[in-house]
Design brief:
single chain; alpha+beta; four-stranded antiparallel β-sheet; four-stranded mixed β-sheet; 3 helices; 8 strands
């Protein structure tokens, strides 16, 4: 009986050791490292809320970022999800430790809440995303009604 228990103990230890070596093989660790690249595009904030804005009034926000990597960084493309959002950026490379900005404009033509992603492609195959959001309130079609109190005040002068 003790020999049988001893056999199962050594079989378990051998299996466990083999499994650990297989998981830590060079191939599996290289795949894992390639899948998770460090983020070198560091934004002060990836999201901006405009809050409530009047319909028909375009708004902009400037996102500032830093190249935290060890090689120069190039923004290949900055693309908005629709025509109502317009990104502007400098095409120059950003040295390690350097900073730059992306200006994102929103044309507040449509009434209601909005959440718009802005996709950034950099250094050939890396990507990041910015978000702008807010709520557009409908502006009155006509001017404000006449204020009778102001007219009375003017007459009393």
């Amino acid at each position: 009986m003790s020999r049988l228990l001893l056999f199962f103990f050594f079989a378990s230890v051998t299996t466990f050791t083999f499994a650990q070596k297989k998981l830590a093989s060079p191939t599996s660790s290289m795949i894992h490292q390639d899948a998770i690249k460090p983020e070198v595009l560091k934004f002060e904030s990836n999201e901006y809320d405009f809050g409530k804005i009047p319909q028909g009034k375009p708004v902009t926000h400037i996102f500032t970022f830093t190249n935290t990597g060890t090689v120069p960084l190039a923004l290949d493309n900055v693309h908005a999800s629709c025509g109502c959002t317009t990104p502007e950026w400098n095409k120059d490379t950003i040295p390690p430790g350097g900073s730059a900005q992306i200006k994102v404009g929103y044309n507040a033509a449509a009434e209601g809440s909005f959440v718009k992603p802005v996709s950034i492609t950099y250094n050939g195959n890396q990507s990041s995303q910015l978000i702008i959001k807010g709520e557009v309130w409908k502006t009155p079609v006509t001017s404000a009604p006449e204020n009778n109190f102001v007219n009375k005040f003017k007459k009393n002068k």
